[in-house]
What we know:
This protein has about 140 residues and is of the alpha+beta class. About 40% of the residues lie in helices and about 30% in strands.
Amino acid sequence: MRALSLAATFCITLAFAPAARAEDPVQSAQTLIQQQIEAFLHDDAASAYAFAAPGIKALFPDKDTFFAMVKKSYQPVYHPGNYAFGKSRAIDNGAVVYQEVLITGTDGKDWTAIYQITHQPDGSYKINGVQILPNTTSEGI
């Protein structure tokens, strides 16, 4: 009888427990960006390419072409001297996340990268594009 009572209590507790919170889309995006930057820093083209969304992979159909494009056009992202996450915004219930990344290049120049991260049908997030802009603010003291 005691076992039945415990089982009933357990079932009632589960029935009224709040649903598990879905993973935070902004945190997922930041983790993804960090992992891709780490792959770039280690010259790991295969891992870096794996974080690209299907649309990016359609433009750059293999890891070597993708990696060459990043090295040429996104040098501050490819090998940042330092970076930190700035503002972020999730839209459409987390289907798209925009994440600002503040980058100091190895040459000391400051950049802002705006990442677009998209939620994929398999539940993962992938990088769908990056816009990189030089910072034109004061260089400080």
